[in-house]
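FORM 7B - TANDEM STRUCTURE REPORT

SECTION 1: FIRST PROTEIN
SEQUENCE AND TOKENS:
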Amino acid sequence: MSEVQVKGNPNSGLLGATLGFFVGFAAVSLFGPTVVFLQEVVGLSAALAGLLISIPNLSGSLLRIPFAAMVEKDGGRRPFLVLLILSLLGVVGIWLVMIQPAATIADLFPLLLGLGVLGGCGIATFSVGIGQTSYWFPQNRQGTALGIYAGIGNLAPGIFALVLTGLTIPRLGLPGSYLIWSIFLALGILAYLVTGRNAWFFQYRRAGLPDEQARVRAEQDGQQLFPNGKALESLKASAKIPQTWMLVLVYFTTFGGFLALTAWLPKFGIGYMGFDLGVAGMLTAAYSIGASLLRVAGGKLSDIFGGRQTALLSLGAGLVGSLMVALMPRGAGTIAGLLVMALGMGVGNAAVFKLVPQFVPRAVGGAAGWIGGLGAFGGFVIPLGLAAVLESSGYAQGFWIFAGLFVLALMMIIALDGQKTKEE
């Protein structure tokens, strides 16, 4: 087996994972405009609108846990492709529903929810890419590499919200937009097939080398992080550690909140701010792209200043922003508050994963699975809460939900200070 050749390097590995996540994660932005369209043609209630907005995040969050575990054996490439193909099937199915008459679409609403679950599978690629990227990089470069991966991948919802509302929907309508997105997703899957690479250890293993020999060869190539082959045990071990669940709540606030607002803002912009679909899309893009770029910076800041200090500052900013939206009169202050929330959530998202090796050092993979999966579950739960508050109190009052979550997240980070297990 000495003739076995491996391909790729850390930078190309990061490129492939980032491209795959970018393609899959764009599904977050699809359902906000869909809800606006369906409310016009079939008269959806606020509750059903909230359910439809959030449904892709149900599969996009919960599937992160088992698929993250698959990375321990596969390296990431296979689960990445499975999730992207499932997402493509969901988007194509939604396009087929959208080309039906309005009365038929209303009857097919349960099917639309099921297709939304499939479409959301692309969102679950996040945890796969986290593992795939991590195995390419040493610990002292993890914050920066994962910040780039997640930050650039997170740009997708904002960019596609802008494209959908400003370009394709006005010209092609929502059915045509889903068709265009299906084509783009198919091309993205092909691009990942070309660029997506597992770290060297997994390539040697796939070529037939025993694990010990594969590890030696990979170490010679420069790989430093390796799977322990005990994904289920890692999930079980991390579940017994209180710090895991404290970080789940923090990520539920920052990343779950990011998903929720990215999906909710088209409806918020039209229903509360009085914008047309194009301007509401620009608001969504400004928030989503801003938070994503700040996540890249958050990874670097976490490497420099530490995850805890970065998290405290970012969560404090998120709290201020949510209070601005809840308390200030509708207008420029509302938009400013949303952008401050983008700052808090974007930087906070990066800080959380810097904290995982510090506080759960013996079960990093399992903890990342719980945090990434259950944290992202906020993207499903929070829009349902926003819809419920909308029916009883109005749009702005829903942001008290975010304020409460930021307070709880700050309490978790402060409590972590007294439970520190490892300092880098």
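SECTION 2: SECOND PROTEIN
SEQUENCE AND TOKENS:
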Amino acid sequence: MPDVEAGKRFYGELFGWTFEEAYGSSVWARLDGRPVAALAPKRDGRMPTVWTVYFATPDAPALAGRIRAAGGQIVTLPTPVDALGVMALAADPEGAVFGLWQGGTHPGFGARREPGSFAWAQLYARDPATANAFYANLFHDALFGPGAVPEFGRAAVGDVFPAEMPPHFLVHFAVRDGAAALGAVERLGGRVQVPPFEASYGQVAVVTDDQGASFALLQR
């Protein structure tokens, strides 16, 4: 994001997050002391301000190879982040960008599916059937395996957004009271992008923060 300090103020008040230095100029966001997200400054001001979904993997280079073989692209090659882990950025065949994280001393989320933490990632695709084929071959056990807790869905872009919107992932954060959270977003300088609607996994509203990054509020 362009201004990490402004991001800390916005999300700290919205979700009750606290922050500590992570690596470089990035900061960890914590909920009751548990890691729930990270805020990082943009290296290139021409790039959009976004939330990025990272999929955990035990072997980022191997998964990067499978992504290429399945028709995706590697945007950023697997790169060590000190002893914290290995990260990479990839794009699916339709161009939706996502991250890979091979945990080291930082395994990933310390809390999720509770108010103020990650709860769902929705992929808005041009062709959901293509997305199903691509991601099922990469993350089948996590997405479709027996006993798996769903945290990832696929839908057509036009179901919620204008048809010209490019394919993308939308990060959802859980909230106790959707109406109160929407009011807080607007009070803090954000805006409502898509008013509340009912999805199979809860009530969703799409918003942007005060720097233009889109995310969703999810009340279950």
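SECTION 3: OBSERVATIONS ON SECOND PROTEIN
The mean pLDDT is 92.
The chain has four helices and 13 strands.

SECTION 4: SIGNATURE
Preparer initials: ____
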